[in-house]
Write a structure and sequence with these properties.
With about 675 residues, the chain is an alpha/beta fold. The protein has ten helices and 26 strands. It is globular.
Length: about 675
């Protein structure tokens, strides 16, 4: 006997089998006749079906999509995300490529004209240009990975098979800065995710990235897109592995605004085409050696293919997984999404010898980033995610005077991460080392950055095909390997000539840029808006940078002391592209000024004045008056001397004041002025 609830009980008679084809009417009648029983009913098995939204897709090629669901668990865990009810519904993804076959039977249902445009020809139709070699199939293949329709009996399915998909035709023609910027900024209040599987030449010798307009498009996307939450840009990390290329020499994957995705083969190996670098955030599956399976997706002329390859295939899979996460939480910002990727990606099953544990205990690799994306894990975390605090940016000049590189150069400096200012970073996200250097053979250089927690990021590995002597001009090498570490402490930059030859070069600039968040208790007061004429400079988010007492403005940040070669003074402030300040407000005090812009003092007198910034400002402001007084005194002395000589020649007696008491100070001049 088992109590159900209250006075209701479930009886099991020892002579009645648990499941029987007969109704055991006799037992039922005896219970009904018992005066103590008010109601009795034999329990009958009923058919019930789980009302979940998931049914395994019936598409003919779904069984070949090993990367979406694989019984051995070497997959992207997409099926588990679908079982949770997430299929990308309500999310819009656009493929920036060579067009999209909008009438493909496996894409047509999800096609979104508002997420599409032909930038090459200047019209709304992104249909690709057909050739005998099917050169323009790339975009259509990428689109199918994201949002190929499920359960329609055609080909396979997309990761986010209920998402809306669009395409921008921009690679089938001359690609200019304007073309890229127009593509990156298409309908940013409608499109949630932009997926790009292209970049500069992967030849192992090119250093190239977005120009002025494209940079502005990225910035506007993350600050204004999706109603201020930020557009999400997913980028393929590059296919230059055979040429020993580095994705940190690609300014698109190396940008903090893009989510850079690498590849793994079916067996968890590093593909031959994969590029290793410290800016890669995570990995999805793609092609490998000839015996390993490739990616199933839509193809031109309403066809299906099972041979999509390279990191070109990896980025759209990531874009689809991100669409699932956005369905789970529409309020995720572009930075939230990167936090989710870092926290939910898995290093398991991915084979490489460069896995390292960073300062917060996460495994990270230059080949795989933080590991394989987990669709189920990211949607589960997205459901309960709280938005990260506003981004802070701390800029620190580590080297401002030329340093000879030689065979090895190491620079070590302890930083406080802009403590005491509104730019104070306590938890890291992206870290940049902005370097300007010359070297007679750039490809022989290896560059490493070591964080205070001991995490060693390879910013640049040697590139044997790079014979250039141009060096790097303010190139922002980026690493994600110190995510969530504390930034305060000693940072070390190492530049090494690995060839052992008699190469030579000079490092002229090393600026450390720390991006991240501050603690809740150290949040600065609300900053002045960009229209405030009293603002000295703005950061890239149009937030006024105001330095607290005892700190001074230096290169869009606040520093406690001006670095070598700079001194406290007043100068017109130079602004970046995003700083729209009226010219009348450009005169800035409390600024670190380069010495060649400063007053022309002798080195000895300048060094003597370094002890007190306040005195230095006071002296510099009195200098014109002092010069005028000294000039007047010189004229008077000359006149008096001439008059005295004439008097002596004429035999006159002149009474001079006694000098025994010494000179009398008259509010006197400071010693350096004498």
């Amino acid at each position: 006997m088992v109590q159900v609830f209250g006075d209701y009980y479930h009886f099991r008679h020892r002579t009645v089998v648990k499941r029987s084809l007969s109704d055991h009417r006799g037992t039922q009648v005896r219970l009904e006749r018992d005066p103590k029983v008010t109601w009795a009913e034999q329990q009958v098995s009923k058919k019930r079906k789980k009302r979940d939204v998931y049914q395994e897709p019936s598409d003919p090629k779904f069984r070949d999509q090993w990367y979406l669901y694989n019984p051995n668990r070497r997959d992207l865990n997409a099926r588990s995300a679908w079982e949770l009810g997430y299929t990308g519904k309500g999310v819009v993804v656009s493929i920036l490529d060579d067009g999209i076959e909008k009438n493909h039977p496996d894409l047509m249902q999800n096609y979104d004209p508002d997420a599409s445009y032909d930038v090459n020809d200047g019209d709304p139709d992104p249909q690709p240009r057909y050739t005998q070699l099917n050169d323009n199939r790339h975009g259509t293949r990428c689109a199918g990975e994201v949002a190929a329709v499920a359960n329609n009996g055609i080909c396979g399915v997309g990761v986010a098979y209920n998402a809306k998909i669009g395409g921008v035709r921009m690679l089938d023609g001359e690609v200019t800065d304007m073309v890229e910027a127009q593509s990156l900024s298409l309908n940013p209040q409608h499109i949630d995710v932009y997926s790009a599987s292209w970049g500069p030449e992967d030849d192992g010798k090119t250093v190239d990235g977005p120009a002025k307009l494209a940079k502005e498009a990225f910035l506007r996307g993350v600050t204004e897109g999706r109603n201020g939450l930020g557009s999400i840009f997913v980028w393929a990390s590059g296919n230059g592995g055979r040429e020993l290329d580095s994705c940190n020499c690609d300014g698109y994957t190396n940008s903090i605004y893009t989510l850079s995705i690498s590849s793994s083969t079916q067996n968890g190996n590093v593909p031959w085409y994969s590029e290793a670098c410290s800016s890669t955030l995570a990995t999805t599956y793609s092609s490998g050696n000839p015996k390993e399976k490739q990616i199933v997706t839509t193809d031109l002329k309403s066809k299906c293919t099972d041979s999509h390859t390279g990191t070109s295939a990896s980025a759209p899979l990531a874009a689809g997984i991100i669409a699932l996460a956005l369905e789970a939480n529409k309020n995720l910002t572009w930075r939230d999404m990167q936090h989710l990727v870092v926290r939910t990606s898995h290093p398991a099953h991915l084979l490489t010898n460069d896995w390292r544990t960073n300062g917060v205990g996460r495994k990270v690799s230059h080949s795989y980033g933080y590991g394989l994306l987990d669709a189920s894990g990211i949607v589960a975390l997205a459901e309960t995610w709280t938005n990260v605090r506003p981004q802070r940016k701390c800029v620190i000049t580590m080297v401002s005077e030329p340093r000879n590189i030689g065979s090895h150069l190491s620079i070590n400096m302890s930083v406080e991460a802009c403590m005491g200012t509104g730019s104070h970073v306590t938890s890291l996200e992206h870290v940049q080392a902005r370097l300007t250097l010359s070297y007679n053979r750039r490809g022989n250089l290896a560059i490493h950055l070591i964080s205070p927690s001991g995490t060693r990021s390879t910013l640049l590995h040697p590139r044997p095909h790079d014979y250039s002597s141009e060096g790097f001009n303010d190139w922002a090498f980026m690493t994600t390997h110190s995510w969530d570490e504390k930034p305060s402490g000693a940072w070390t930059l190492e530049i090494e000539n690995v060839a052992g030859a008699s190469d030579y070069g000079t490092l002229t600039q090393f600026i450390l840029v720390l991006y991240g968040t501050g603690s809740a208790s150290s949040s600065p007061p609300e900053q002045a808006p960009s229209g405030n004429d009293n603002c000295k400079t703005l950061d890239l988010r149009q937030i006024c940078i105001e330095c607290n007492a005892g700190y001074y403005l230096f290169q869009q940040g606040c520093v406690k002391e001006c670095t070598a070669g700079f001194s406290l003074g007043s100068q017109p402030v130079n602004y970046s592209v995003g700083n729209f300040i009226p010219p009348a407000s450009l005169d800035s005090l409390g600024t670190c000024v380069h010495l060649n812009q400063y007053m022309r003092e002798s080195p000895d007198s300048f060094m003597a004045s370094q002890g007190s910034p306040g005195v230095q400002l006071q002296l510099s402001s009195r200098l014109p008056i002092a010069v005028a007084v000294l000039s007047c005194m010189a004229i008077i002395a000359t006149f008096a001397g001439t008059f005295l000589m004439l008097q002596l020649r004429s035999g006159a007696q002149i009474k001079l004041p006694s000098l025994e008491g010494g000179p009398r100070p008259r509010g006197g001049l400071q010693p350096w002025r004498k």
